[in-house]
Specification:
By secondary structure, the chain is α/β, with parallel strands linked by helices. The protein has 22 helices and twelve strands. A five-stranded parallel sheet has the order 2-1-3-4-5, with helices on both faces. 54% of the residues are buried.
């Protein structure tokens, strides 16, 4: 029986999941658990795949169930109260923006979202003829916006240096440290620095695990752990000197892939908070009704987006076919939808261990549209060429029929440029599709309809809200596009054989988080001890059967440095464990199968080995 809910919702959220039971994968934090909804994701067709990922995304809006583990959820009273309290701190900065600053910081997906949100709310302030006071930090600098720079995430001191640089001379700073799993050392260092300078900083920790599940391992070369920082913040929350915003939103559709639900929840949570702050700052006043209505606009975005499930599934199938045939997926966007395209494409690189050329995103006006601090980065290499002009010059000449191109635009964009570019692309491939966003009363021109064999056409209702209404619709369109792109690229890589059940099995071991995750995945799929899984991972990394004392005694950072440039480290280790064979033999076996998934399944079913116990309870591993 469905539980009684406190609030009226726009969508039907799933009933409580198995992951909410006290004993379910108890050694893992929520963000690293496997989601029971998608346990057979690699065995279903694209239509079912979209439905499963839709249900995973809907878990963001679930209310807590007191009969199960009492995880705080997005609609929990304590979470809503914290949103209000932090919004008031933001208002203090908005009233004195010359001496104040609002900083959003994160690694990878979280850092890219920090850029998006900072730019959005600075634009809102400029429209009111007020001084912009939002800024972003991303570990690895602006090049991490466009390429995978995972190693920088492991440095607390680098995080502190970046924070000191952007906050120089400011008297009041509200700092948002975003780490979906509450595990990134870069962010931990920044939060710790804020706690030591509370005369200037109001630190806000944003993530999606309870504090008790925060990463407890000592951070290499540092004096503390993320857990110790989180505990200090929790103790200071009652005095409103620090805040913890950490609703549980459930495990990811792909185990550990926080670019998906974690990224979406970050966007929903912080945009809601900032909109509430701006409303209060404009003397409208803040009420629970206002806060809940903003959250419901995101629920509506979920409903409207997934009403297009059949067309999204067709796009999943087409994109998967292109990648299976060694073709490419190119995603072209106008305005901030171009930034959503770039973000999604870049995130596929570490998640699925792919080449940056496999999935590419492009933004209509290039760096001027991205509005990053360091400006045009094109000179750094071909992967930094991101404008539509770069796409025409560098990509179109070599395109083939195996490639798929996806256009993302609104009917307020330059539709003539959409038409011109689509005509050019259609000379090279017939696999051209589009996502189009309109407001009620707008209609797609007939000329564009003819150009695209399939259009995911989404119409949004007119929002009769003050100035902020236009931004809410912008946020809805961005989130809708994010959900579609996440589903498309995830589904395409499932079809490509990069996922077994709902586990990534070919990700790059490019930082401490991925190293720990690799050991966990090996345990889950093989049923072997943590020690044996760690040894096998190291043998795969170093390409040796005998581990020297030097290798065994090395810090994790050394293993990550060695692994970060190598391919198929995790998949080789999986096959080695399942087949009980040397890593060089495992690597050779991988070459004989069409996909990683096929190799893993064949190894699981090999004659003479015990059936894997995927649902075993593992020894505790703090992640």
């Amino acid at each position: 029986m469905r539980r009684t809910r406190r609030y009226k919702h726009v969508i039907d959220t799933p009933d409580p999941g198995k992951w909410e039971l006290a004993g379910y994968e108890a050694s893992l934090p929520i963000t690293e658990k496997s989601n029971p909804i998608t346990k057979d994701l690699d065995r279903v067709d694209p239509v079912q795949m979209v439905q499963l990922l839709r249900d995973c995304d809907a878990e963001i809006f679930q209310e807590e169930d007191p009969t199960l583990v009492n995880y705080k959820r997005l609609y929990s009273e304590s979470v809503l109260r914290t949103v209000f309290d932090v919004a008031k701190k933001v208002q203090d900065v908005l009233k004195d923006s010359e001496d104040g600053l609002i900083v959003l910081s994160g690694c990878g997906s979280s850092g890219r979202l920090a850029l998006l949100l900072a730019n959005s709310f600075n634009k809102l302030l400029k429209g009111l003829h007020r001084t912009p006071c939002y800024t972003y930090i991303i570990s690895g600098g602006d090049k991490a916006l466009l390429t995978s720079q995972e190693a920088a995430e492991d440095s607390p001191s680098l995080g502190v240096a970046e924070l000191e640089k952007v906050c120089e001379g400011k008297k009041k700073v509200v700092f948002f440290g975003i780490s979906c799993g509450l595990s990134a050392p870069f962010v931990a260092g920044q939060l710790d620095y804020c706690l030591n300078n509370l005369d200037i900083f109001v630190p806000v920790m944003v993530g999606f695990n309870p504090v008790s599940m925060t990463r407890k391992e000592s951070i290499e070369g540092w004096h503390s752990s993320f857990f110790q920082v989180a505990e200090r913040m929790q103790k200071l929350q009652e005095a409103q000197k620090a805040f913890v915003l950490n609703p549980a939103v459930g495990p990811e559709g792909i185990c550990g892939s926080s670019r998906m639900k974690g990224g979406s929840a970050t966007k929903i949570l912080l945009e809601t908070l900032f909109l509430v702050a701006h409303k209060g700052d404009s003397n409208v006043g803040i009420s629970e009704k206002c806060l809940l209505e903003i959250l419901r606009t995101y629920e509506r975005a979920h409903k409207v987006t997934y009403s297009q499930s059949k067309k999204i599934a067709a796009l999943v199938k087409q994109s998967g076919t292109s990648l299976q045939k060694k073709g490419h997926l190119y995603i072209l966007g106008w305005g901030t939808l171009g930034l959503m395209a770039i973000m999604d494409a870049v995130e596929c690189i570490p998640t699925y261990g792919i080449d940056y050329r496999d999935v590419r995103g492009f933004i209509s006006t290039g760096y001027s549209g991205m509005q990053n601090k360091e400006g045009d980065l094109t000179s750094l290499g071909p992967e930094f060429a991101i404008s539509h002009e770069d796409f025409v010059k560098n990509i179109v000449p070599s395109m083939t029929e195996t490639d798929t191109v996806l256009f993302n635009f609104t009917l307020d964009d330059d539709l003539a440029s959409v038409e011109k570019l689509s005509l050019l692309v259609k000379e090279k491939t017939s696999n051209v599709q589009a996502i189009s966003h309109a407001t009620a009363g707008q209609y797609l021109p007939a000329t564009l309809k003819k150009l695209f064999p399939s259009i995911i056409s989404i119409t949004w209702p007119i929002l009769f809200l003050e100035y902020e209404g236009a931004f809410i619709q912008k946020f809805q369109r961005e989130l809708s596009t994010k959900w579609i792109l996440n589903t498309v690229t995830t589904g395409a890589h499932v079809l490509r054989g990069k996922v077994f059940r709902n586990y990534m099995v070919d990700f790059r071991v490019s930082n401490t988080k991925f190293f720990t995750r690799a050991v966990t995945v090996l345990q889950r799929l093989s049923g072997q001890s943590q020690t044996r899984c760690l040894d096998t991972l190291l043998r795969s990394i170093y390409g040796t059967e005998v581990l020297s004392d030097e290798i065994r005694d090395a810090e994790t950072s050394k293993h990550v440095e060695e692994a970060s440039t190598k391919e198929q480290v995790v998949s080789t280790a999986i096959v080695s464990l399942l087949r009980n064979c040397a890593v060089h033999e495992a690597r050779a076996r991988l070459e004989t199968y069409p996909t990683i998934r096929a190799a893993v399944e064949a190894s699981l079913n090999a004659i003479g080995r015990k059936r894997s116990v995927i649902n075993i309870e593992m020894p505790s591993t703090d992640t």
